[in-house]
Amino acid sequence: MFNRARDRELVHHNPCEGVRYNKEGKRTRYVTDEEFLRVKALANEHMQAILDLALLIGQRRGDLLAIRQGDIDAEGIYLRQSKTGHPQIIRMTEAVRDVVDRLLKDRPRGGAYPLVCKPDGSGYTVNGFNTNWQRLMNRAVKEGAVERFRFHDIRAKAATDLQRAGHDPQALLGHASWTTTEIYLRDRAGQLVEPLR
């Protein structure tokens, strides 16, 4: 921001110049199947479907909230990654179709309506969705169901579980490079190796 202001001659120098960034460590939190199911059990029916969709398609929260009903057909869910602009089609499997049907249950229908929406058909704001997520997570922690995790950790779980199943998580996450995908992989146990005998 200061660089822009300097370019426009609004300030003489950038006081942040030369300041070192705090090094951010890699997140290692892996949400187990048991934890995911415990949190899901505390959620209402609609949030349960949102959690299932998040795990199945592994998209960022903003990309998940941006899916419109018109982006869905028999082939799959069409979306464009907000960070990269990368277009994708998430293939319509039986599991994806089931979750889509659950999300649309008792909701207004039409191409312009968001898939993940409130009962009146309006979409969630990021803050509104975060509030619902935090309420659910606070309840889960208070009841001792899980150790706190972020909604974004579900994306990491999807990537990790996909890789462990022998598939390529890079395509699902929509990353241009494997290096970016590796950030999402949570391999707490390390590499599985064979003993001598």
UniProtKB/TrEMBL annotation:
InterPro entries registered for this protein in UniProt: DNA_brk_join_enz, Integrase-like_cat_sf, Integrase_catalytic, Tyrosine_recombinase_XerCD
Ranges that cross the membrane: none
Keyword terms of this UniProt record: DNA integration, DNA recombination, DNA-binding
Domain spans labelled Tyr recombinase: 26-197
Signal peptide boundaries: none
Pfam families cross-referenced by the UniProt entry: Phage_integrase (PF00589)
SUPFAM superfamilies found in the cross-reference section: DNA breaking-rejoining enzymes
Alphabetical list of PANTHER family matching this protein: INTEGRASE_RECOMBINASE PROTEIN MJ0367-RELATED, PHAGE INTEGRASE-RELATED
The family this protein is said to belong to: Belongs to the 'phage' integrase family.
Protein name: Tyr recombinase domain-containing protein
Record organism: Halorhodospira neutriphila
